[in-house]
Amino acid sequence: MKISILLPYKENFSHKKSGAVSIFVNDLVKNTVFKSINIFGNTDEKDYLDKRYNNLRFNKRLLQSSSKKYIEEFLKAEEKIKSDIIEVHNRPYYVNLLKKFTGSKIILYFHNDPLTMAGSTSLIERNFLLSNVDHFIFNSKWSRDRFKLGIKDIEKYNYKLSIIYQTVNKPKINFRKKEKIISFIGKLNTAKGFDVFGKTILKILDKYPDWKSIIIGEEPREKLNYIHKNIINYGQKNHKFILKKLETTSISVICSRWNEPLGRASLEACSRGSVPIITNKGGLPETSKSAIILKDLNVNTLFKSIETLILNRSLLTKLQKKNYKEFIFTPGLISRQVDNIRQKLFSTKKINFIKNYNKFKILHITNFNERYNGRLHYNTGRRINNGLIRNEHIVFTISDRDIIHNSKKINDLSGKRTLNLKILSVCKTFNPDLILLGHADSVKDETLFELKNKYKNLKFGQWFLDPVTKHGPDYINNKTRLMTKSVFMDANFLTTSPDVIDFNLKNSYFIPNPADSSFEILNNYNTNPKNDLFFAMSHGVHRGILKKGKTDNRETFLKELIKYSNKEIKFDFYGVNNVQPIWAENFLSVISNSKMGLNLSRGLPVKYYSSDRIAQNFGNGLLTFIDKKTQLNDLFNNNEAIFYNDIHDLAEKILKYKKDNKKRKEIAKNGKQKYMKYYNSTIISQYMIDKIFDLKSKKNYIWI
User: Fold this and answer.
1) What's domain 175-328's superfamily in CATH?
2) Model pLDDT, residue 700
């Protein structure tokens, strides 16, 4: 694939004076898998950032448009190159000039507010772009939303509107070497809030003389100058110098008055573990989940924000580490996202149908837990696998963690190299239509990218069972795991409702935890078990036993529930009060002895999320109790499950249905019938296939 990148006229693609556009492009070309790339621009500088840069120098006639002449020179070069893709940065009006003379695919990047740029200010111009540009890349959700304003039927174009953030490398940071430094980096003007910063920093440095401030930037049109013995004004410096200074900076102020389309200075601060203090303008709030945000910009609010961090050293350190840990926009990730868009522009919609109907060859990679001798046989991966086979797909399985565990050796200490080579070998011989991943974190991005480029019709999907909201457990880790693989995925399937996650995960869909007729074999509503309420948890399925000293919110809740129940209810709890977890056949034997089951998950209740325990409760005919805050009453009515408001309400309802055996059996039976009919593994696995391959199904997916 041949790619030409067209920079804005007069963009400085140089080490000394590079702006945000040049830095972004330079990061992309250094990390892309595509080798045939040419960068075009116009600058008077000589120290180009990359050897693939072509400087378009020209002479123009009097009154002739410099931009039009610039495009003419570019098109002369294009006649020889004949690029597959032309990528236009930040100049929407170039599209009209290019579209007349080239048949190349066009990707348009917006680094600024589309409504302020020539060629995209009016509805007519933006509708023209939607019809003539093959894909758009915006540097923030704010910028994308600005572009969409007022456009009718914009939903049908959403597939070509992507958000890809600016990128910064992420070195290891020694937080012990952080100094008492407050930075301001950018144009030194009132639009950037430099006047407020200058007045504030003078007060801060007078009150806290052991702190210093560095200022990097210039603005010849405004003469704002603040002098103090503890201020170092470096003037204009190159990007490498700025990033090095941020490694020892503790606090970074980015206090724009205007709507920043994104705010690269904030991203760079996060990548170096410097706490960003930002305004709520434009896309700035998208740069960090843990920034300090000024709702009102003035000397008092900025002073208080800085002073709070100075006086509370533990808070300062905590926020430094939090911003650093949460930063994920590295050049490798961002470049993969862009490469994926490039590749999709040339991917065919042809699918390898088997026997001329919708049956596919699927490589399913997840942890099938073979090494635990059946203890973890009853897992969601096998449920989904069973469903795929019942739908008559051909399924080849790879148990990633078993292979890693069994393949560790001197030349492959982690076992991951063996796993990834096996995946490549299997694809070569099996030639799947789909690779389906389930928590397969050890599958390398390089492997996925190689497969995506080699097999043009190959589809990718992933399912993810852990909660992915910021109020849930392991939020940052789960978010990173999802996002890392999502750039390759045609669909992502979550057991959390996608509309409550706080990050942009494209092509994401909710799936209930699947039940399986070969696993859920009990009908407790037909019996009179001796125990009233069943609940089982663990401290990790692979560990198998309780971890000494570890507790979570569920254990606290259960102990309180026992206290409120005044010994009237016979509980059968596992994984709490030093009672070890149960597995496999022991689990089935134990759950058969309870009338009712409690559906309780780690973390705060969140829309639709549940652990896979919900499938086991419903599927085995237990009357199931669910926290109303999960909103699962969208999926079940009061004749199929019992919803409680709080622990007191729960205790009362457990006692009520303990006494009302007839009603308990009736609701439990309805619950099982509902779950096994609509939320079984056959239905859910086919829903995944339908979404991945964009098929229309006659099945009734009642949860959508």
Assistant:
1) Glycogen Phosphorylase B; (3.40.50.2000)
2) 79
